[in-house]
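MODEL INPUT / OUTPUT PAIR
PAIR INDEX: 1
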Amino acid sequence: MHAFPAQLAGRIDEHVFSSTVLRGNPLGDPSERPLWVYLPPGYDPSAARRYPTVYMIQGYTGALPMWRNRSPFRPTFPEAADAIFAKNEAPPCILVWVDAWTKYGGSQFVDSPGTGRYHTYLCDEVVPFVDAHYRTLAEAAHRGIAGKSSGGFGAMITPMLRPDLFGAFASHAGDGLYEACYVKGFMDAARALRDLYRGSYQIFWDDFARRPPMSRPDDGNLVMTYGCAACFSAEPDGTVRLPFDVDTGRLVDDVWRRWLDWDPVRMVPKYADALRSQRAIWLDAGKRDEWYLDLAAIAFRGELAKVGVTDVYFELFEGTHMAIDYRYPMALKYLAERLSR
């Protein structure tokens, strides 16, 4: 452990990617985004060799530079990933870190009139760019995706929607089983809006903009709840519809159904063929996850089994939703081995 970044055996190319599909997005967020591509040791000398690719996506409020944040006594994930390949603990891979930040803190990696076309950005812009500029094995059988929390959600749904592009995924405490992970947050949001903001999200956002963000206890839940509504239940004109009544917390049935359509647990039957095509699936979560995403992982695995997908790495470990970045290298090894076959 030291104060300076570790010297990598591989290297990271840092790009500024100019997205066409994010231009003019509803929130006015930048269409130019940072994009990092990690090349493993030996990439440059081995001029003919091609490599599997693993795309890394982030949880809610995650922005690309945060991958270099260092937890106490631990390497950053780029450093930990580099060490795996430097020590020959897994077949070498190209890693791609994708930014999908919005003014609401995230995009859930879906296309929405409330936030922008982040699914299309990832699949139809970033993936072709990487394949065109690097020596990838440009087939779904050699391309994976991984993430935690909302990134774990994105890692689950993206191969379901695009099995032509992604043939493996790892989800660390990925969002799912929405009645468990979201409904309590709706009730807490209703109380906070009532007690602090006269029942108005607009008053909350105005206040949020005038003070240090995330400086009040309810900020995180209020931001994420509204941001997810912008992803899952925005109208075609961009109007954000909440899945609950702000006065009582009661679910608004038609809006809530739109959220449930994005619940990975409930998506499995519809996308059974896509899931059966995956070469590797990794699911894990802490046993005391604050959003009950351990239960979501169990439910998702159960639905996979119903459609005949049983070759799944599954683990519940001692821990919560926080400080589980040490799990990422474990899943990366698993994906690297499967994608290299």
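PAIR INDEX: 2
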Amino acid sequence: MTARHFFNTPIKQRIGSMRAMILRRQRHPLELVELPTPTPAVGQLLIRVHACGVCRTDLHVIDGDLKEPNLPIVLGHQIVGSVADASQSTGRFKVGDKIGVPWLGWSCGKCEYCNTGRENLCDDARYTGYQINGGFADYTVADERFCFPIPLGYPDLQAAPLLCAGLIGYRALGMTGDARRIGFYGFGASAHILLQVARYQKREIYAFSRPGFTASQAFAKELGAVWAGDSLQSPPVPLDAAIIFAPAGHLVTTALSAVGKGGVVVCAGIHMSDIPSFPYSMLWGERAIRSVANLTRRDGEEFLALAPQIPVKTQVHAYVLERANEALDDLRAGRFTGAAVITIS
């Protein structure tokens, strides 16, 4: 029986099958289906999924903001699981190892970008939960080159958000250089992790949320932000840098107004609404705007080594696999602070 035929069969128990939440069509809810348990190809691992974080990028895939998903697709790219079959791998991991799988799932390994440690820019790269089936399922397969050991001491639920919210935030923070006063625009999963990293590095964080989202502001202060307010407010002091997590293009000009001369505004999302035009005077003074594109394996290695030293503690809200659509809706509406994670039993 082919995988495509499985998408159209009713769910019942079969030997060699698994549950999965798939996206058939953009702008439609995920569907619970039964699929054949995947078989790893050369260089791949079969992973029994324990947990998978829910990311705003998942919403961008569902909503059609990202135009090239390999439909039907199993979403989810913050995967924590254990190796179930390593027979096709080089031996980097063994059966039973707990590993994580991030957004960047494959790159060509041959182009100029790949050969200079910038595989995040590879033109032929493929992404977990977008072109490669992800972690909203009992099992998945992944290229062993793009898997990471999970740091000791991290439960599955707490580890999952590190694999995108943490990694992308870490890359964005690196783009601020030695900035001391940094504004975070949008205080969700990534910001709540990154604030802990920034405090460890003796930086000051100024947190901005959507107007009316006072719970996010209180959460930011609880984690150590020196100031928190809504995005319509100006910070009490000029900022050295700003990181924009929210997918709202108008925040670029808001952040430019908040940073001083020489400041940088980092756009950390994979998708953002159009940036409105603005006068050159806002950019003048050697201010800069940068974007973050995906992640590199070096980012993963560095951040996952640093996280337990801080230690980063993630606040998570758990949903069973069958409630994945509810988790996505809650994320969209901002009904929780911290991160959402799908648990796989």
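PAIR 2 NOTE: The chain has two domains: 3-162+315-343, 167-291.
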